[in-house]
Structures are given as structure tokens and as C-alpha cells.
UniProtKB/TrEMBL annotation:
Alphabetized Pfam families for the sequence: DUF1543
Top-level lineage group: Bacteria
Source species of the chain: Acidisoma silvae
Gene3D superfamilies: 3.10.20.10
Domain DUF1543: 15-66
Protein name according to UniProt: DUF1543 domain-containing protein
Amino acid sequence: MQLFMVYVGGSFANSNTELHDVRFSVGAAIEDCYDDLRAQWWGTPASLHLDAWAPIAYADGYTVSVEPGAAPGMVEKLFFINLGGYTPDEFGELHRNILLVAPDAATAKQRALAQITPWSEPHRDQLFEVEHSVDLSAALAAQGLALHLRPTQTETPFSFDFGYRPIGRD
């Protein structure tokens, strides 16, 4: 089983543009996550599609795994941070999504904000602990699974798949 980070998109009533969100799900392959992603989607069901997806096996100096059993008592936690900011040549808000391992949200926020120096008027849109804020720990516990973080000296570059992949249902 793997933790997947998924960039989903679709429409919502009265929206003039396509809406997007980053969601998390667990499965052996991305296809195993479709039903869960459909259940998480708040927009028009038939419009749901994936734009990008990646199994999260490494983040910020740690291997990331989902395993059977109870969650270990760990000081370090996995945080998903969605940063927003502006540049003078782009109409609208730009976003950067970061996974960081830190002992608390304040430390994760400080580290994330240091990474957006090229933006004008950067700000933090959302900061949340993946396991708690998106109920990932509860979902994993209900399945008898836990998120494990293990320090590693081997850095693994973040890689992801992308493309329009419709998964919506009428």
C-alpha cells in the first residue's frame, strides 16, 4: 500500500473556471484510489478528473510508508503545505505544494515560507498535518494501517505522473 498525493479537478455549480484540490488516498496503485477520491470530491460528480498524481515514498529526508498496525509514537510528523503567492506577470494566485517533515506546524510553516522568496506578497493558504487534517490517520486506522516516517540519507527526487484522467461518475 502507498500514500498517494493527487491533484484533482472538476466543475462546481456556478463556477466560471475549473476547480482543483490536492487530496490524499491509499492504495497499491492509483486506480485503487478512485472510489476514495470520488467520495472526497465535493463538486459535480461527472466532472471529476486527475491532473497529477504521485505515490509518496520519500519526503524531506524520510522514507514514507503505509503499513499494517497502529501508528508509532513519533515526534516528527508529515505536513502538506499549500503556499500561495503572486508575481507581477501572472493574473491570479500561484500555488506551490510542499511535503515537509517537522515536529510541529509552526516549524513546518517557517521552513515552507523560506522556500517562496521569489514571489511577491507570498502567503500561507493552508497548513495542515496530513494525518490529522484530512483524517488520514483515522482512515488508515480504520483499515488497520499506519503512516511510518524513517530517516534516510538517500534523497529521492519527487516525481509524478500527469495528464487528464477522468474518473467521475454520473
